[in-house]
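Form 12-C: Joint structure prediction
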Amino acid sequence: MNKITVRDCTFSYDKEHNAIDGISFDIEAGSYTTIIGHNGSGKSTIAKLLIDLLVKDSGSIQVDGLELNDENVYAIRSKIGIVFQNPDNQFIGATVADDIAFGLENHCVESAKMQGIIENFAAKVNMLDYLNSEPTRLSGGQKQRVAIAGVLVMNPEIIIFDEATSMLDPQGKAEINALIHEIHEQNHLTVLSITHDIEEVAGSDHVLVFDQGHKIMDGKPADILKRKQELIDLKLDIPYALKFVHALQDEGVNIDEVITMERLVDELCQLKSAS
Amino acid sequence: MSIEIRKLSHIYNEGTTFASVALDAIDLTIQEYCMTAIIGETGSGKSTLVQHLNALLLPSKGEIQINDRIIKADEKPKQLKALRKKVGLVFQFPEYQLFEETILKDVSFGPKNFGAGEEEAEQRAKEVLKVVGLDESYYEKSPFECSGGEKRRVAIAGILAMDPEILVLDEPTAGLDPKGARDMMQLFVDIQKNYHKTILLVTHDMEHVLSYCQHVVVLSHGKIKRDCDVKTFFSNVDDLKEMKINPPAVIRLREALLAKGFKLDPSLLDMEELAKQVAKEVKR
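Section 2 - Result
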């Protein structure tokens, strides 16, 4: 079943050239989809169109069977949560608890119930010990955890991550990536992640490749990531495992193209025991 | 251009209840004419350290010597302009600091500020724009019309225009796409080699440390934890693990294969070499 259906969507910032130029795609319910493309390819713009933060010029966007229009926009927004790139630009509350409460307050949740909900979601992102901490006392990774809790508390069906880990240090990045996978699996959420991290793409269900406002590839990572030269021409990367497979092939080894390190090690072990 | 750091401490909000020690009696010599990576977790003191190099921050204790210029604690330094011209600092997201209406004017600002005439500054700007890969079609463009990667090149050209001998780069590839990041790193390698600069690179990216740097300094809680060449740094995998550093892909793969009983040179750091040895193991 499709959770998101986009058809012939077009958007222009300057009314001269299209940042999104006739894009169509489907995102299946419960899937983990990644969107890649170089800087300026339209990845972040499409995320903003999906939540009507930017208004499309033409085309159609459907979320959960609802057409995105003036009538449905709030119903659709209540289904989608979004986490942005910069941890400092999305912290609204004076403390962690306040920040998580913000969305609840907007939805007029009784304050008696609120404390329990806040603690529950702070625990989910492993920030229970920091409820009364101020944002300046938190690391970037911790701030992103709070942002994720603030989104989860609204009980969304879809979460969009717009380069949510790109400003974090490696440890923060690994923590947030693990958390995204965990909430994806536990909450049966549809995840849409805009990323430059090719290893994250290799571990996703579905990938869309954007270039200059067009969607130019759409499919399973295992198929898409093998299109090495095309990806390099698009200023993108290929996974290390695949680079290594190509280096092995240059050495005359007959090995299948794999995109993750785990699969590569498995394949090599099999080849070794057969040799 | 040598940098010697002796017993350098920096304490924020010294003498108040909010006092926090960001650097704790650091001794460090920065190697000339090579690229040194400065790594460490968020809050380890990296940014505090590099801001001392052109006296944006002053020592609470200890001293820094840059060539024959010594900056000491408790001594109000005078005439920092000469020092600031020698040490160019490129902050994170330097494109936020662009302000002029054309790229040429933006890049000329630095040299003019350091006393160059209009024509000389413009000449200098044109030279460095070429170095960062922006041709004359960019001169009259507004810096704000450019893509993220181009903006960053303009900002870096602005620093290069002052002809610093030491270039300090704070996460210069953050937020760039993979090609943009690779090109940017190659640019620094070229600048370092062709113009004999000393480059300090603050980074979290171990692939960049392995591919582009010669030397590594690890900071942790305001102290120097490691100070060695890149090969030595990556040779002890347990040590990396203990410092919570995720090694580059080539090491992760090598270690995974060694654990599965592959016979490989445990010090390999090169993908082609690793592929050659693995090929021997798996071929009939």
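Section 3 - Comments
DSSP finds eleven helices and ten strands in chain B. Chain B touches chain A at residues 41-43, 147-149, 174-180, 204-206, 244-246, 249-250, 252-253, 256-257, 260-262, 271-272, 274-276, 278-279, 281-284 (CB under 8 Å).
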